[in-house]
Amino acid sequence: MSTSAEEYDRMSEEERKAKDMADREREATEQAALPYKWTQLLGEVDIHVPLPQGTRGRDLSVVIQKKRLSVGLKGSQDKILEGELCKEIKVEDSTWTLEDGVALIHLEKLNQQTWWENVLTHHPKIDTRKIEPTDSKLSDLDGETRGMVEKMMFDNQQKQMGKPTSDELKKMEALKKFQAAHPEMDFSKAKIS
């Protein structure tokens, strides 16, 4: 039984915790029943498909398409998994390998800013609102990216407080310097944009 957002909001903290725990247990049971394990980051999905002992790469038939995935053994009508992918992928950046009796399938998401609810549309879904992304620290970013992120965070904070953004502060500073360098000019009626 699914709970609407309104119903969830009306629950007490204890009821929410119990519901979240029950949902996590149900999701874990449903996911464990799948013929594969999967993990995801915002930009990619990794699928681990256990295979019969002794399976070699040439025994496998893996078809990776923009919106479909199929994994099976050659000569067998039954696929281990087959169906429509939850979202589109970048086929040219997606790969598969065989390692220790497990087919490792790496899919690059087309939209790298979204969480997948499931791998194949007909499989049980997970609640993507409860995903806790792995910690990423500003210190992990290269200098240029880190500077951009810090600037965006600063500007966001300034806007929320009704204060000028970093670009607006630079313009105000440049104007002050220009006024100081040209005291003979009257800026009282100037419109600055």
Arithmetic mean of pLDDT: 85
Tally of helical segments: 4
Report the major sheet: 4 strands, antiparallel
Specify the structural class.
Answer: alpha+beta
- Beta-strand content estimate: 15-25%
Gyration radius, in Å: 26 Å
> Largest beta sheet: what is the strand line-up?
1-2-7-6
The structural domain count equals 3
Instruction: Based on the coordinates given, report the CATH architecture of the largest domain.
Output: Sandwich
Q: What percentage of residues falls in helices of 4 or more residues?
A: 25-40%
End-to-end distance: 55 Å
* Shape, per Cα inertia axes: elongated
What do we call the CATH topology of the largest domain? Immunoglobulin-like
* Unreliable residue stretches: none
CATH class of the largest domain: Mainly Beta
Number of DSSP strand runs: 7
The ordered H/E elements are HHEEEEEEEHH
